[in-house]
Write a structure and sequence with these properties.
two-stranded antiparallel sheet; 420 residues; single chain; mainly alpha; 2 domains
């Protein structure tokens, strides 16, 4: 709204009205506004949740300090969603297809997570929304994002190519003049950092490009489902999912700014995506919202985000990465979410395998998701493959170390863009 208002005022040469034309200025305003909103309304919403007795249902897993969390207000993800949406509506270009998709994704997964939390709290059902309904919701969003990217004429890219400078015979990076619809994406460790999904369907001949889009949509569904569930599993310690998401969001914001600027994208030899620079405004609101929420969610937490927040954060990260064609970097950038997911899959699979083979189930980790492994007292029990550390680590120390790993993974992700 403010963006369009200042555009009108600019016609009257009002001083400062044209500042809204600069993506960096609008991003800064969005960050400050989202941080302010989350800090101010956060306290009010927490008080309201306490009055409504919307408390966390805690299962006794024998973890130190776990039962003290019982009754802590949950569904705090509402704070994050409001703090993202309001700045985007006020500062963003609402006709931009990338901004539209991010707002839809935020509200869609927010509603899905809210339904899960509501069932848990209102019906005292610790399982919440049935898993199949969560998957249907995630797949539905994947279809919306994938088909919109396929059908929308506004979602295009310019391929980066290396050409020889005729003056000094050096290789320089240029972008093709025309915008094209393409199934290309960024992939690390290869020349030009581009991979075309249509390569996987070239056996389809003249329909290879259509086949490439089908593969792309399937990848979109998988990424959204995997990352949103990964964030959901990571949300087990105070501030862990929130802080990790803020680090990942900052990295994606930088990538988006570089990929939306033809000069920087040429320097880094990555594809140029016209119009995607508007996502920097959204990313700034996302960063401000998560940092503001962390003020209340850090140890000891005054509020938990619940599935309302965790499913939304993971989905936002996934959709954002897909829109800027960086989804194949997610295994590195979102490594925390990945190992949390894998730890659960490995634990369950190994337990079933050993139970079938030896007659009794054995475990790889003391407890999963992985962060609980470090929070659990060690044992010499032979049924556990990885017994260390023997002494349980304090919750705050585990969270901080995970943050450091997340920062390291973010740096590695950027390094991959220059390693060919």
């Amino acid at each position: 709204m403010f963006y369009y208002l200042t555009k009108l005022l600019a016609d009257y040469d009002l001083p400062g009205a044209r500042l809204m034309d600069y993506i960096t200025f609008r991003s800064g305003v969005a960050l400050i506004l989202s941080l302010f909103i989350s800090m101010v309304i956060g306290k009010k919403i927490i008080e309201k949740l306490q009055l409504m007795q919307v408390g966390e249902i805690v299962r006794d897993l024998g973890l130190e300090g776990q039962m003290s969390k019982k009754g802590t207000p949950t569904m705090g993800g509402i704070i994050i969603i409001i703090s993202i949406i309001i700045p985007c509506l006020l500062i963003g270009k609402l006709e931009n297809i990338y901004m539209i998709l991010m707002i839809i994704s935020t509200l869609w997964l927010g509603a899905l997570g809210f339904a899960d939390d509501y069932i848990k709290v209102a019906h005292h059902d610790k399982d919440g929304l049935k898993g199949k309904f969560k998957v249907i919701g995630q797949v539905g969003l994947g279809l919306i994002v994938g088909f919109t990217m396929y059908l929308s004429p506004d979602i295009v890219m310019r391929e980066n190519i290396e050409v020889e400078n005729k003056t000094n015979h050096e290789m320089v990076v240029e972008h093709k003049a025309e915008n094209i619809k393409s199934t290309q994406t960024t992939i690390p460790f290869v020349k030009n950092n581009n991979f075309d999904y249509a390569y996987l369907t070239k056996w389809m001949g003249k329909h290879a490009q259509t086949g490439g889009w089908i593969v792309f949509i399937l990848v979109t569904i998988f990424v959204i489902t995997a990352v949103s569930n990964g964030a959901n599993l990571t949300d087990g310690l105070d501030g862990l999912a929130t802080g990790t998401s803020a680090i990942i969001g900052t990295s994606l914001a930088i990538m988006c700014y570089l990929g939306g600027n033809v000069i920087y994208s040429s320097y880094l030899n990555i594809m140029y995506i016209p119009g995607s620079e508007e996502l920097v405004v959204y990313a700034a609101a996302f960063i401000g919202a998560t940092i503001g929420f962390l003020w209340y969610n850090s140890f000891p937490a005054q509020v938990f985000m619940g599935d309302t927040g965790s499913l939304t954060l993971g989905g936002i990260i996934a959709v954002f990465a897909i829109l800027i064609r960086k989804e194949l970097l997610i295994p590195i950038l979102c490594g925390i979410f990945l190992v949390e997911n894998l730890s659960v899959v490995m634990q369950v699979s190994y337990f079933k395998y050993t139970k079938k083979k030896y007659g009794e189930g054995r475990r790889i980790f003391k407890m999963t998701p992985l962060h609980h492994h470090f929070q659990t007292q060690g044992t010499a029990e032979s049924k556990v493959l990885f017994k260390k550390p023997y002494n349980a680590l304090p919750e705050s120390k585990i969270v901080m170390r995970f943050f450091l790993v997340a920062i390291f993974l973010a740096v590695i992700t950027f390094v991959t863009l220059k390693i060919r």
